[in-house]
Amino acid sequence: MSSNLPKVAWIGLGIMGSPMSENLVEAGYQVTGYTLEQDKIDRLVAAGGKGAASIAEAVRDADVVITMVPASPQVEAIAYGPDGILENARQGALLIDMSSITPQTSVDLASSAKEKGIRVLDAPVSGGEAGAIEAVLSIMVGGEQSDFDAAKPLLDALGKTIVLCGPHGSGQTVKAANQLIVAVNIQACAEAVVFLEKSGVDLAAALDVLNGGLAGSTVLTRKKDNFLKRDFTPGFRIDLHHKDMGIVTDAARNVGAALPVGGVVAQLVASLRAQGDGGLDHSALLRSVERLSGSQV
Fold first, then answer.
1. Catalytic positions, please?
2. Can you give the CATH number for the domain in which 136 is found?
């Protein structure tokens, strides 16, 4: 293990955080993890990382603190307060928040951290569980160029496309746009699947040929099997996409951008959640189209 690599604290070991932190361990980083579930800390330890009993313990000696939690309230809960990151990380540490939250939360966090001498990047990701496991995530970053340059080698161990998009909050804005495109794309694929099946076409053959042309997409490549097998084991839950559609519709309203199709898909995601499907993968938008088309789901 190279001793000149920065020491990393990782807060949040969920569907994304666990494989991402393990990729850092594999790349030679010393990673100390903390999350609410002990079994997930144990998983990191088994992979060669260390466990901590609290946020304070995890971040105390860290050069870099990485957070990967579900939404703005969780980021605020782990960052602020006497037991939070800002009170317990050392001066000069770099906090990289990889959660998907509102751009304003990121701006506020960077401002509060600056007062403590802590540098911040917002660095949300796209690519889902598979992208996290394979270390091929797209990482959209907001913050200072110098902090981005310092973080780049570490981010290279987690993703493939890593881009500084602008000042604090910019990464979150680009992530919101990403989630808009993904949701609309899944919805279009779901509608095509129901249309094809009701027409009696061989679905697997149809999706193969569609994916080879202009209708092809990373969404269709990644989610084709979910559609074919009706396997909605969560790689990215409807609950989280519902949160993200709220972020993008709110942010778009604030800047005066109309999202007519995005608004409709946001409502379809919300309705799926209201029907009890919030814990399923976002490819379960197919279930919504099936219900609307008269199928018993």
1. 175
2. 3.40.50.720
